[in-house]
Amino acid sequence: MTTITKSLPRLVVLGEALTDFVRTGDQSWTSVAGGACWNVARVTGTLGIATAWAGAISDDFLGEEILEKSRTAHLDLRFIQKVSKPPLIAMVHETAPPKYFFLGNDSADLAFDEKKLPAGWEDACQIAHFGCISLVRQPLGEKLVGIARDLKRRGVRISYDPNYRNVMGPTFSVQFEEMAKLADIIKLSDEDLAQIYPNTSSEASLKRVREISPLANILFTRGASGLALLTPTDSFEQPAFIVTVADTVGAGDASIGGFISSLLLEPKQDLAHHLRFSAATAAAACTHTGAHAPTHKQVLDLMQS
């Protein structure tokens, strides 16, 4: 008898999923599943890329919400580990501008075990994405950096978005540069650079990134001012698409998700096309509240408008 095994994903995103508790009044809060890395995976899965988010979630109703939304985004559920640990939570007590703190000293995300991932996933993986707070939460962070190193040796392209958060601290530039050296694709916002290299201009900071990662493609986002793609030999500019903005939550995650998706969906297209697709994905995400994962049709309609 022949056993048919579901094929393994081309893209694997490794990092945190969490639950945001957002203050809506003096005594009221609302919760929503989130996390930068998980948001990226939802974007690529919804755009049609065979994607897995690899991480651990709590075995309670908050973890179940992450699992169900992963299923809706067509993510490969074999990579999600449910563990008997409390959830990782972000308490967002102000939204304009965002102010937050994290709860989770012994939470589910830290229990991720790469040995339990499906056999052979590294061989099927074409791009692996890493980023945000998962890389500074130990022992998870060291484990993920080790996975990135191993994948790099295997010839897998590494995508990295530092997505700076307040828990990263004043010495984060050291770890940022460690990951940047491994990365083939680096997504950076102007706000990220200001935190990673304080009191330094964006131009000088980008020059430093190029020195430590001479062959990477750098996706540089500037909110309403648009995006740039900086290659080892050239640069491309892309204005932001004009849309009615509901909010900008998850726009950065959508931009890198769109860029990776375009690389995998249309590998023969030029980099300017991939940059335009990235910008359209980010803009489409902004037309809905929360970290919206737009469909491929929504992105194409915006590109053609």
TrEMBL record:
Residues 10-296 form the Carbohydrate kinase PfkB domain. GO terms for molecular function: ATP binding; kinase activity. Transmembrane segments: none annotated. Keywords: ATP-binding, Kinase, Nucleotide-binding, Transferase. InterPro entries: Carboh/pur_kinase_PfkB_CS, PfkB_Carbo_kinase, PfkB_dom, Ribokinase-like. Belongs to the carbohydrate kinase PfkB family. This is Carbohydrate kinase.
